[in-house]
């Protein structure tokens, strides 16, 4: 142990420059893993914020989770998904809760969209305001149907407001102004129940306990009372999907208020989990390659130690201590930077609107030590990489330790097997859809990058056979570069690997989303045939579409409302619940405003109880006109719909087109729909625009309507996570590329000094180094692009039916970063070329 400690101490001082690159790689690894660990911990502990029900001890609400079970490998497996539309409960729940001992007050709550002065608002019964609690600032509570209370000082007492609810405009008198958001409007309980449109159903029941009552005990009594009364959710759910009413307490109360928060939390965890393996593998690969390269340039020194009698155990222990000293300082430094990196990711998610309102990413004190755990993992990884780096030399007999060894056949076989596994995973991506295809493509890219790292010497040898002739055209410097690259394929392979890594990883992450967006935009432009669009907050007035169709110059009008459905099915033997964006439309003359590219059937037959299906989805489900498909709406209710048509342009319109009435029936707070208007060829568009404004008072007429495009709810989240991961891993990998190339350049100083003594000129050597760097960059970019293209081609053909697409600006950035990074590795060797003759030749190059 004393010998190993002495060797480690001397080697650390003698090779400070080499260990500086390793220190940087380990620091960034610890930082990246720590930030990623904090983000995962924060997403795991996230919960919806409690606002409207902050004054309630308990909240009784519907179960906002749907479940699907299927047999998988002989066992029954169940998956679940959050519901983004309100699951309502029967009014009988209010009676059952009020009879429970310890309940001081039970308040019924309903919520519905309201249009007010061109803005969207929310209507609720005044009794529910006490659950926040929101108190009156001025005025009094509403007592008659025509009276309202506004929030946040949005209107003065005595003012008259015209509110649009359910497509109808009604005048109300403001009798009070209360605390709370300015978008809130409170009605009497009876008027709110009438306007909500479901008098026998409630959104939730807020419970205020008697003083001194334990909320936990009260929740148990309320649960028993609801079960005894047989209270279940409203609507028909699928078999195996229980409809039990929930009793929420503490932080769970926010789940009844912010419906999109819980599903977004699951989607955030899924998005982070989908890239977790890739991030960890990239970090391990970069750290291992950097440490191995630092030890490889000292292979003769380690061989000499074996030749003079050092045992394999002493050699491993010395190298392990040496790397451990560096890692012991680097890992805590990276852990300290993990917190700012995590806060930066949080800011990115907020800036891009990737998280819904109400979802709070918390970080309990119990999870604060996460970066210390990842720092310990970084130290262990460094130790393992050190043992791998010196294992070859340690195993050799002393007489053989000084000889240069070529890579063996075992390494070649391992690389070929990994390459085959990656290609097979890409083939799997071509046969799948959705998240399964994306995960298979990402796994294929990482596996193929590792295969290229293992096959690096042979890739470099093959590249030099192709590039050798062009390099020799550049005179003596070119011939030197060609000879050096051909003779040092092992070294060139180590330099190519990080370039392949950054090119392939960034290409897959960026091009995957860009391909889908590009294809969706192209289809959305092809789908839209309308010239104008009519939109109104709070919904279009009743009969608006019919009045629009009667306007002179209007050829057709279609109302389009966005929404979501869930598709339950077995994928590769495992149950899966997939959330899909859809549109509800009115079918009359639909193809004159929208062109879905009908393949079979007739969209004019689209009525309540029917559905049109995208061609790819129809093929996967075996659906055709006349058959049926089973879907779950956003509120969890299941329905069987008869297929009336299939269409081609599903990237823009989603996989299902439904009747507007069917979709709105299961939408708690409908998004603002719009009517797409196609004008006659000879119509005066300005005159038609004015006539439409008169026909639909309070509506806005858009002269250049935006294309119709269905976006998945998690798309913004996935894009934000992708940008963050590419930025973090890309920057980390660039540093690793620079470190690896700098290590290689530093290890070549003796070789360059020897060439100078042999008569090579400084200009010739500079040209040689530049050409070698250019050959390295070209080979790395070509191989990286090839590695990325295999999974991307499979993914894009499966998901978009097009070739992969990467925006030119992003492609130029990737190439520029690689070129500049490779150029940054040249300065370490410039001092060797200064002066007329080199001063000395150091065996270590330091």
From TrEMBL:
Residues 275-388, 732-826 form the ABC3 transporter permease C-terminal domain. This is Putative ABC transport system permease protein. Belongs to the ABC-4 integral membrane protein family. The lineage of its organism: Bacteria, Bacillati, Actinomycetota, Actinomycetes, Kitasatosporales. Keywords: Cell membrane, Membrane, Transmembrane, Transmembrane helix. One of its GO terms (molecular function) is transmembrane transporter activity. It comes from the Bacteria. Pfam families: FtsX. It is found in: Cell membrane. The keyword Transmembrane applies. It is a multi-pass membrane protein. InterPro entries: ABC3_permease_C, Macrolide_Exporter_MacB. One of its GO terms (cellular component) is plasma membrane. Its main location: membrane. The keyword Cell membrane applies. The chain crosses the membrane at residues 268-292, 326-348, 368-392, 413-431, 437-460, 481-508, 723-746, 773-797, 809-830.
């Amino acid at each position: 142990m004393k010998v190993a400690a002495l060797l480690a101490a001397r080697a650390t001082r003698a090779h400070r420059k080499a260990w500086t690159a390793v220190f940087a790689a380990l620091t960034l690894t610890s930082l990246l893993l720590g930030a990623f660990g904090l983000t995962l911990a924060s997403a795991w502990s996230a919960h919806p914020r409690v606002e409207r029900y902050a004054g309630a001890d308990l909240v009784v609400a519907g179960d906002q989770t749907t479940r699907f079970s299927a047999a998988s490998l002989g066992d029954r497996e169940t998956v679940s998904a959050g519901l983004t539309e309100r699951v309502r409960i029967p009014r009988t729940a209010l009676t059952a809760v009020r009879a429970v001992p310890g309940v001081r007050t039970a308040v019924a709550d309903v919520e519905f969209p309201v249009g007010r002065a061109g803005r969207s608002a929310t209507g609720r019964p005044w009794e529910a305001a006490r659950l926040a609690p929101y108190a009156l600032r001025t005025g009094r509570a509403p007592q008659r149907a025509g009276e309202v209370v506004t929030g946040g000082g949005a209107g003065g007492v005595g003012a008259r407001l015209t509110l649009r609810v359910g497509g109808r405009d009604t005048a109300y008198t403001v009798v009070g102004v209360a605390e709370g958001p300015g978008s809130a409007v409170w009605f009497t309980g009876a008027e709110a129940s009438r306007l909500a449109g479901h008098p026998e159903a409630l959104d939730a029941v807020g419970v205020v306990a008697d003083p001194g009552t334990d909320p936990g005990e009260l929740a148990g009594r309320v649960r028993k009372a609801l079960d005894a009364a047989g209270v279940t959710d409203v609507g028909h759910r699928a078999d195996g999907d229980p409809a039990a009413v929930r009793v929420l307490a503490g932080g769970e109360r926010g789940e009844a208020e912010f419906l999109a928060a819980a599903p977004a939390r699951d989607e955030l965890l899924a998005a982070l989990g989908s890239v977790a393996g890739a991030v960890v593998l990239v970090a391990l690969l970069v750290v291992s390659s950097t440490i191995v390269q630092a030890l490889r340039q000292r292979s003769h020194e380690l061989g000499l130690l074996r030749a003079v009698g050092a045992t394999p155990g002493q050699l491993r222990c010395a190298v392990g201590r040496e790397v451990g000293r560096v890692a012991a300082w680097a890992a805590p430094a990276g852990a300290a930077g993990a917190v700012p990196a995590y806060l930066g990711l949080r800011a990115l998610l907020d800036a891009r609107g990737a998280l819904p309102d109400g979802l709070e990413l918390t970080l309990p004190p119990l999870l604060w030590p996460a970066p210390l755990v990842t720092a310990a993992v970084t130290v262990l990884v460094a130790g393992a990489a050190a043992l791998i780096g010196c294992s070859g030399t340690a195993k050799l007999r002393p007489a053989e330790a000084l000889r240069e060894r070529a890579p063996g056949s075992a390494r070649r076989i391992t690389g070929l097997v990994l390459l085959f596994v990656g290609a097979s995973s890409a083939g799997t991506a071509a046969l799948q859809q959705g998240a399964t295809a994306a995960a298979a493509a990402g796994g294929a890219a990482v596996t193929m990058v590792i295969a290229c790292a293992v096959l690096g010497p042979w890739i470099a040898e093959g590249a030099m056979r192709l590039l050798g002739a062009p390099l020799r055209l550049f005179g003596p410097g070119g011939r030197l570069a060609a000879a050096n690259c051909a003779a040092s394929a092992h070294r060139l392979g180590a330099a190519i690997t990080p370039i392949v890594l950054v090119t392939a990883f960034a290409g897959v992450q960026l091009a995957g989303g860009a391909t889908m967006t590009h294809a969706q935009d192209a289809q959305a432009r092809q789908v839209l045939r309308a010239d104008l669009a009519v939109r109104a907050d709070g919904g279009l007035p009743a009969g608006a579409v019919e009045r629009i169709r009667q306007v002179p110059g209007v050829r057709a009008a279609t109302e389009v409302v966005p929404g979501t459905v869930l598709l339950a099915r077995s994928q590769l033997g495992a149950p899966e619940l997939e959330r899909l964006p859809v549109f509800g439309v009115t079918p009359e003359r639909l193809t004159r405003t929208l062109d879905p590219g009908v393949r079979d059937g007739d969209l004019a037959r689209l009525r309540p109880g029917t559905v049109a299906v995208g061609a790819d989805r129809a093929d996967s489900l075996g659906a055709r006109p006349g058959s049926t498909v089973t879907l779950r709406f956003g509120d969890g209710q299941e329905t069987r719909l008869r297929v009336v048509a299939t269409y081609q342009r599903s990237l823009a319109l989603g996989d299902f087109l439904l009747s507007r009435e069917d979709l709105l029936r299961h939408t708690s707070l409908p998004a603002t729909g719009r009517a797409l208007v196609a004008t006659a060829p000879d119509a005066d568009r300005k005159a038609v625009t004015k006539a439409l404004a008169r026909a639909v008072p309070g509506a806005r007429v858009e002269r250049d309507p935006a294309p119709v495009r269905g976006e998945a709810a998690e798309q913004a989240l996935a894009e934000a996570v992708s940008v963050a991961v590419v930025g973090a891993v890309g920057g980390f990998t660039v540093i690793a590329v620079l470190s690896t190339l700098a290590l290689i350049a530093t290890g070549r100083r003796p070789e360059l000094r020897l060439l100078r003594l042999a008569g090579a000129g400084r200009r010739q050597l500079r040209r040689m180094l530049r050409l070698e760097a250019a050959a390295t960059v070209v080979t790395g970019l070509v191989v990286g692009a090839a590695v990325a293209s295999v999974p991307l081609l499979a993914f894009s053909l499966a998901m978009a039916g097009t070739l992969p697409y990467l925006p030119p600006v992003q492609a130029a950035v990737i190439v520029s970063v690689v070129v500049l990074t490779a150029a940054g590795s040249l300065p370490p060797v410039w001092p060797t070329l200064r002066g007329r003759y080199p001063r000395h030749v150091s065996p270590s190059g330091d």
